[in-house]
């Protein structure tokens, strides 16, 4: 067993986001004698965590307590040099000078707050520091490393925190500083690994593949005579997820079908309006955001004919990982690392620029194809077991963590 892990998240275990960490945390808690989770955004509700896990937050009222004078005082020569380099990069990408200066000072203040938390809880430099996202936390840890507050840190990288084109001006702030100071970056797909290595070949030796994983909750029930063809999607309702395109496609599907969507977001009202225009053969159930435990219970008890994901951009979707763990066939767009999990062994991969009519054609053709058979579902389950089993992937990942010290 290792000593102490400091895990930095956006909100987990508060709220309902970062559900994939619900699987990983139990393995981390078994491997380390003590785990501290430090979150950016505290919420009212909190999920259960193992007994040796302590949850802290950097300050939910950051805007209220932000002190420019403290941020300036906390600046070190090494940090100031990094800020100057970053300002030049940001200006070349079309960012405003004032915005870059403001962001740099605020991130420096957050580093000041994190150092105070570490001192308060006697978290030594010998702890393993692990940020779940290759974003602000990675920058904050890089600042602390330059100030020799910590010795080293590692990070995962997923989608928005990896692919620069998914960000304003195709730009991720402080990417160079993050890569200079991080010990290892564990990317969740081969596609993402290749992308980051090609963008930053100087740091390729730090970049490694580490698939996420999901637990085995059983197999999805086979369809009964009474069951309608059931289409399921699961994502936040954001433009990049293109859930509205599913509604458009269903206008062209003639068979009796039930579409169930799990997830919420700013486009919920738009999706509801689109669903009102669907023909009578299409039944829609927008479930909103539910707990991961409830979602797993749904897959365990309710037949799903086909899972669909037509995002414009992805890392390697955990939502698809969860579906294949139940043997559910997939229809998905060929973006990011999706092709690593949607193959001829698990479903159908379609072009990123697919039309509603083509989506409808694929859904209609699927009903009586080999992809809907019991044998194919067993093959899907076997594929999950080989590649995305949490009990294998997280133990392998933890084995690599101990080598993060320089």
CATH homologous superfamily designation of the largest domain: Glycogen Phosphorylase B
- What is Rg? 22 Å
Please indicate the percent range of residues in DSSP E strands (runs of 2 or more).
15-25%
In this structure, how is the largest beta sheet organized? 7 strands, parallel
Q: What spatial order of strands do you see in the largest sheet?
A: 3-2-1-4-5-6-7
Overall 3D form = globular
What low-confidence regions span 5 or more consecutive residues with pLDDT below 50? none
Number of strands: 13
Please give the count of helices.
15
CATH architectural type of the largest domain:
3-Layer(aba) Sandwich
Query: What's the domain count?
Result: 2
* Mean pLDDT metric: 91
So what's the CATH class of the largest domain?
Alpha Beta
Based on helices, strands and strand pairing, what is the structural class? alpha/beta
Helix proportion of residues, in percent?
25-40%
């Amino acid at each position: 067993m290792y000593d102490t892990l400091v895990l930095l998240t956006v909100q987990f275990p508060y709220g309902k986001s970062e559900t994939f960490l619900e699987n990983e945390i139990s393995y981390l808690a078994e491997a380390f004698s003590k785990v501290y989770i430090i979150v950016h955004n505290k919420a009212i509700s909190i999920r259960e965590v193992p007994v040796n896990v302590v949850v802290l937050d950097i300050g939910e009222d950051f805007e209220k307590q932000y002190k420019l004078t403290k941020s300036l005082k906390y600046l070190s020569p090494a940090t100031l040099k990094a800020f100057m380099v970053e300002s030049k990069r940001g200006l070349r990408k079309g960012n405003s000078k004032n915005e870059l200066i403001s962001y740099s000072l605020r991130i420096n203040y957050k580093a000041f707050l994190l150092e105070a938390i570490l001192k308060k809880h006697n978290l030594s430099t010998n702890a393993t520091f692990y940020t779940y996202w290759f974003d602000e936390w990675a920058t904050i840890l890089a600042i602390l490393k330059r100030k020799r507050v910590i010795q080293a840190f590692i990070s995962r990288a997923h989608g928005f925190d990896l692919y620069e084109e998914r960000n304003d001006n195709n730009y991720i702030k402080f990417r160079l500083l993050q890569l200079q100071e991080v010990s290892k970056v564990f990317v969740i797909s081969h596609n993402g690994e290749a992308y980051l290595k090609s963008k930053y070949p100087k740091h390729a030796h730090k970049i490694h593949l580490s698939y996420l994983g999901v637990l085995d909750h059983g197999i999805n029930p086979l369809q009964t005579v009474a069951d309608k063809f059931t289409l399921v999607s699961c994502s936040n309702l954001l433009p990049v997820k293109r859930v509205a395109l599913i509604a458009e496609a269903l206008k062209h599907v003639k068979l009796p079908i039930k579409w169930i969507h799990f997830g919420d977001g700013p486009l919920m009202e738009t999706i509801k309006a689109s669903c009102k225009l669907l023909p009578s053969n299409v039944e829609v159930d927008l479930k909103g955001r539910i707990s991961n435990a409830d979602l797993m219970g749904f897959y365990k008890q309710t037949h799903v004919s086909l899972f669909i994901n037509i995002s414009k951009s992805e890392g390697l979707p955990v939502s698809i990982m969860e579906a294949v763990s139940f043997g559910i066939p997939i229809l998905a767009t060929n973006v990011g690392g999706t092709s690593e999990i949607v193959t001829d062994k698990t479903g159908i991969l379609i072009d990123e620029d697919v039309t509603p009519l083509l989506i409808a054609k694929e859904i209609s053709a699927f009903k009586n194809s080999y992809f809907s058979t019991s044998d194919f579902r067993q093959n899907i389950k076997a594929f999950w077991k080989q590649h995305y089993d949490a009990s294998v992937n997280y133990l392998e990942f933890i084995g690599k963590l101990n080598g993060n010290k320089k």
